[in-house]
Amino acid sequence: MTVILSLKAKQSIDAWLLKYPIDQKQSCVIHALKVLQDENGGWLTEGAIEAVAAYLAMPKIAVYEVATFYSMFELQPIGKHKISVCTNIACLLNNGDKIVQHLKKRLNIEWGETTQDGCFTLKEVECLAACDGAPAMQIGQIYYENLTPERIDDILATLEPKEIKDGK
Amino acid sequence: MANEICFRTLHLDTSWSLEAYQSVGGYSVWKKIFTDNITPASIIDELKLSSLRGRGGAGFPTGLKWSFISRGAPGQKYIVCNSDEGEPGTFKDRDILRFNPHQIIEGIAIAAYVMGASIGYHYVRGEFFEGFERIENALLEARKLGLIGKNILGSGFDFELHNVSGAGAYICGEETALMESIEGKKGFPRFKPPFPANYGVYGRPTNINNTETFASVPVILQHGGKWFLELGKPNNGGCKIFSVSGHVNAPGNYEIPLGTPFAKLLEMAGGMKGGRKLKAVIPGGSSAPVLTAHQMLDLTMDYDAISQAGSMLGSGAVIIMDETTCMVKVLLRIAHFYAEESCGQCTPCREGTGWMFRILQRIEAGKGSLKDLDQVLEIANGISGRTICALGDAAAMPVQSFLKHFRDEFESYINHQQCLAQTI
Ligand SMILES: Cc1cc2nc3c(=O)[nH]c(=O)nc-3n(C[C@H](O)[C@H](O)[C@H](O)COP(=O)(O)O)c2cc1C
Ligand code: FES
Q1: Quick one: DSSP state of residue B249?
Q2: Cα distance between residue B152 and residue B162, in whole Å
Q3: What is the pTM of this model?
Q4: pLDDT averaged over chain A?
Q5: Contacts (Cβ under 8 Å, ≥6 apart) of A164
Q6: Complete domains list, chain A, with CATH
Q7: What is residue A161's predicted lDDT score, i.e. its pLDDT?
Q8: What is the ipTM of this complex?
Q9: Residue range B319-351, pLDDT digits in tens
Q10: CB–CB of A112/B74 below 8 Å?
Q11: Whose C-alpha lies nearest to ligand 1, atom 30?
């Protein structure tokens, strides 16, 4: 079912559309998909893809092509926090393997999986351009660099659901 | 001398602010163009004299590139800045965006003036939220001062710049894939020719440069092409940012003169971690052929020296590997990258990158045979030169160079089913 675009989504897309020639609305597709993905808790439904297609007057397949091509789009439900861990060369050379092992063990999930409480999804990504801070990862918009198992525990503790910590 | 070009504000508080930028002479070149009626031709001459070469990877002379689109040619033209920075090991554009965004804007604006383009797109890698926000704010400030927009500084010249952003795809750093992405498509590189100067964004003449290239321009014009040239060495003008990573004590960006000895750069980066011995260096990002310690210690860091040694300066990403590094594991990781990032358009690259990765995986798992080495090399040779864009070559070169310089180690790994260098 086509998603109905929220007023906020429309405003954001309309503002971004001003960057492009009037007859090139399709150019806005990446931005539009990002807006809808954010509104839907981090992943795109088929209805969202349909809505973007309708709004930008594109064939649905063209939007789908974009949504599947770029790695920041998710087409499956995803945890509240997406942990994108770099495993590329500089991170590998700086004990990135240990970081990955620690994350998998602590969260008890493998690449691409989500924790049972829906809080975290673990994703392997390519070089984040933070190799001077290797090993590095990104959660949401934030980069975390110079990771150690202890730092990871601290970072995750700030993101875990409050209710559990407060015992509510 | 270090950090005097793209990082010239770095020593200041809030180095990304308009005040910081103006305090080092920022936007003075842009203003002077209009007050002193500086001609596009003289700007191109200055860039040619400076010997500035493209910082995105290919090292193409910027002055020459800017002469391909003439100011007077009719119709819409575009300037594009490439901040997609995805080449493994490279982290310089992210820092220019975060710490000196105004200089990128000034550089792009100068290009727009030279080529008569009224619209520019600045394509920023999707993951760079912080950098995107910094340059959006900088652009707002520049607009407020009338430095970007309609009738700039009363000159009658209009230039509108738009920051746009990607969504995760290494291939979109390739210039024509980037243009497809701006147009709202998946990033499939276009066949060249026609080149962007004839057929770029929306099919219109387009000039594209890397972030560091644009950010170098204002400083060159402020101090003169000759000054810049003499910072470096002939045909390798100026300073360049080297992103040093791997087994060093102080990984980071070092903006130093082209022609600086590698040994000096290594020393600046704090030397080898744990005092261990240098084994190998990838001198220009993961696509550049690996070189041995022995080769590197005699080299200077510039386009010509690195290319004579059989590699490329590329994006300036210098990945340092010490004696404990397992070359099989490193090559496997590189092969993984290209198999992941191949866009799938050309058969040799789509199939070949996955095939090489699977063979290397088998070797790493201790199930390889010596014949596998010939096979993987044959696949790499089969990809080279047979694809629309250079990603195919970029995937082949690591395989070819690792086997050229470290074949013994691969053979030993296969024979012993494990790495004999201490593992990483
Ligand atoms: C697979 C591939 C990825 C590339 N990625 C980038 C990139 O992230 N940033 C960049 O500036 N150039 C990249 N390039 C090079 C661009 O195609 C282009 O040559 C460059 O942006 C031109 O700018 P310059 O002349 O200032 O170097 C890439 C090329 C290829 C083949
Ligand atoms: S290799 Fe991990 S951030 Fe570059």
Answers
A1: S
A2: 16
A3: 0.97
A4: 95
A5: A117
A6: 7-69 (1.10.10), 81-165 (3.40.30.10)
A7: 79
A8: 0.96
A9: 999 999 999 999 999 999 999 999 999 999 999
A10: no
A11: B174
